[in-house]
Amino acid sequence: MNIAKRIKNAIQALKGQTVELNDKELLEWLGISTTNYKAVSEVTYYTCLKLLAETLGKMPLKYYQQTERGRIRADPTTAGILMSVRPNPYMTPTTMWTTVEQNCQHYGNGYIWIRGKFLPARYGGQYQIMDMWPMQSNYVTPIMDDVGIWGGEGKLYYRYSDPRTGKQYLFKDSEVMHFKTWYSLDGFMGESVRSILSHTVDGANASQRYMNQLYENGLTARMAMQYTGDLSDEKVKKLQKKFADGLSGPQNAGKIVPVPIGLTLTPLNVSLADAQFFELRKYSALQIAGAFGIKPNQINNYEKSSYSNSETQQLAFLVETMSYRIKMYEEEINGKVLMPDEIADQKFYKFNERSILRTDSKTQMENLSKAVNNGIYMPNEAREYLDMPAADGGDVLMVNGNYIPITQVGAQYTKGGEGNADD
Known about the structure:
Number of strands: 11
Oligomer: single chain
Helix content: 25-40%
Protein name: Phage portal protein, HK97 family
Organism: Blautia obeum ATCC 29174
Number of helices: 13
Pfam families: Phage_portal
Structural class: alpha+beta
Low-confidence stretches: 26-37
Order of helices and strands: HHHEEHHEEEEEEHHEHEHHHEHH
Radius of gyration: 33 Å
């Protein structure tokens, strides 16, 4: 659409006359974007979301108790069974934790509604958790009741607008597990990488769209058409269409098109190499991954990686990125799910991060053997780690019989355990 037509349509709109409301160029000229490009469609952003969400979903949640003898596995509770077996009739724990972490990273906050009820007095009169439901973060609004509108001055509530039914619900703070990203200036709400680095993510999306257009046009550049003489607008449009149909598109790649005398086609596009397109695209990808705490090898950038280097980067990801996320989840779960008597008995929930630290079978067997031989693991504990049943006599710690306490070094050389070593 040329500028004259744009102005004409704008004037018609002001006069209330009919205009081309679906004209893409007119809407964009008026500042109305006609295209909704999702951040998740950018491959680096999508990869980072996938890696973080799946990493959390891989780790099983365990229920422990701290005793005088150390940490032991505690008897399962209703809440523990929900979070480790089936949180609701439609989801597995893997699906629930993956969904919450994806919402948390994409929107800055993730929420789980803990649905429960108080049992009658004849059944103990305690609060019982029935099931757990992740909520879409863009439909949740935290509300601080500063004046006591709902009878709780200074308390936090969560309003949820169900996108399927349109109904609205109001939940107490104790009924909602609220997970957030590290970037939170007020401690209540988190900010997502998408909103903080919106320009970087949009730029990466724009570069992807540019590549798509190049492929759609058969990797042909835009051209200027030079001709002699005076042609009407109608004939110019016919020429444009003729050469556009003959040169653009993957079906015309490498095709020879005859050009009449007096007509010249000159490419206008700057080459990708001159624009350092791929270098800038790679730099943007590393910036997005770095903001998420993702290492270069995890987004398939192996330029400066070796096998051992990649293994080190994977360990660094678990320590530097996921350890914070795991600790934050554990604290929120223990703060919202544990009952007062469980807290008094020093019971707690903990993710098993060892499930994502598994090595090859040879290294795994060597490590377990060393742990058993040095009295760190009991044989049955090592067998449990390998998903093998317990064996009789395997609940004892064993060490090498040649080991002695450091305070008795040299005593083995004395006669009858007495005297000097020189006797």
